[in-house]
Amino acid sequence: MQILYDSTRGGEKGLTASQTILKGLADDGGLFVPQQFPKLTAGFKELSEKNYREVAFEVLRLFLTDFSDEELRYCIDHAYDEKFDDPEICPLHEADGTWYLELFHGKTIAFKDMALSILPYLMTVSAKKNNISNEIVILTATSGDTGKAALAGFADVPGTSIIVFYPKDGVSPVQEKQMVTQKGDNTHVIAIRGNFDDAQTGVKKIFSNQELRAELKEKGYQFSSANSINVGRLVPQVAYYVYAYTRLLARGVISEGEPVNFTVPTGNFGNILAAYYAGQIGVPVNKLICASNKNKVLFDFFRTGTYDRNRPFYVTTSPSMDILVSSNLERLLYQITGKDPQETASLMQSLNTGGRYAVTKEMQKALDGFYGDFAAEEEVMETIRIIYEKERYVIDPHTAVAAAVYRRYRDETGDTVPTVLASTASPYKFGRSVLHAIDPEQFDGQSDEQQFFSLHDISGVEIPQAIRELMQAEIRHKTVVDPAGMEQAVRDRIYSSHPSVNL
Length: 503
Fold this sequence. Notes:
By secondary structure, the chain is an alpha/beta fold. The protein has helices at residues 17-23, 44-47, 52-63, 69-79, 113-116, 119-129, 145-154, 173-180, 196-208, 210-219, 231-250, 270-280, 297-304, 329-336, 341-354, 361-365, 377-391, 397-413, 431-438, 440-443, 448-459, 465-471, 486-497; strands at residues 5-7, 32-34, 92-95, 98-102, 135-141, 160-167, 187-192, 221-224, 260-265, 285-292, 306-308, 356-358, 370-374, 419-423, 479-481.
């Protein structure tokens, strides 16, 4: 069955997967969604006997139907290789009555590696399939993890360049250093004076600037995105939820056909949307537990049916979730409107102009499969400490948000359905916060390097290569701009990289 893609706002219809991967965002500002959901053809028992690469192949071939099997295997085999420090790619760890899906064993020790290790290969294959000779300019906003994973994935990839914007004071010290030390002649990192929503809004404005896009196209360039708005980011994330289900089956935790819950720490809504898509293609999902931090706009949406970004913005210990505009929620809205692009566009217009929208009672009822909750900062720190003391298992603050929410969900509902919790980052990436939670008297005041060794001592987990490299890395990117200067910064980077181009 061929799967084609439409914009959630109705402006573009019937694009192939490779066309959507190249475009990233639709011309009308909408996100691309499949016209229909395919269904898994392989049985879960069969999938439980396959490794991660083989399961990913079975999932990707359902959505990326204009890719040949050979092309998909090429992309998968080059993405999920020795860059990952665990042969399972994303192993499951049982602790505190749930199953932690460790998504941080890639090159940049965060879950974004799961998709951004493969996106450059999907994109370059897509360019060849569509006879694209333009250089692809990857334009991305990051709340911390996407930026480094995208930079690492696209560094020195022929025919591409990448520009990443991040909030200057809105990421962890390790996240920032990972980005500003990135090597590669085609990589550009720019801090903005603002928060992630400012960065994301600025990137969307640049994408929707048709005059600039036409100007660049004439010069031999075209924009694409490495954010989770790109189908090439979203589909690979679906694969690891399918894989998690098959691992529970292989371990005898569940029988084939038994439901599971997925608990996901959520900011931009892409990771939990991938779990929703896994359910749509056949994974038996009981409940999708959406865990927010203090920026609890999604919690309020699931409880009230009103999405309202007109509220204070908080900088927390889980910075990748410090988001008030969850872009991927638009894809879910499109589904619960009955795939109505006009209604979806109207809701997005309300968000853009007034900062809020409200869904109907019927639409809200369609969200019954979701449970939303949030964890305050004190609860996040307490959860890190409790799980360490109880299990000697160390988790990062984003994972702790999900763990805190799941513990409360389990207590409130009595739900004993086996639950997979998306563990989205290595504790080494947020060592200062993690150690403060476990024992501030012992660990506060240590240098970053001392804290890395302390984490090793208490967790028994080797210091990741990404951290070891970071200790000696040279800072290469130092530019800081206001949000209003983002477009000019893009022009400057393209011009400086290609002096012959007159922009």
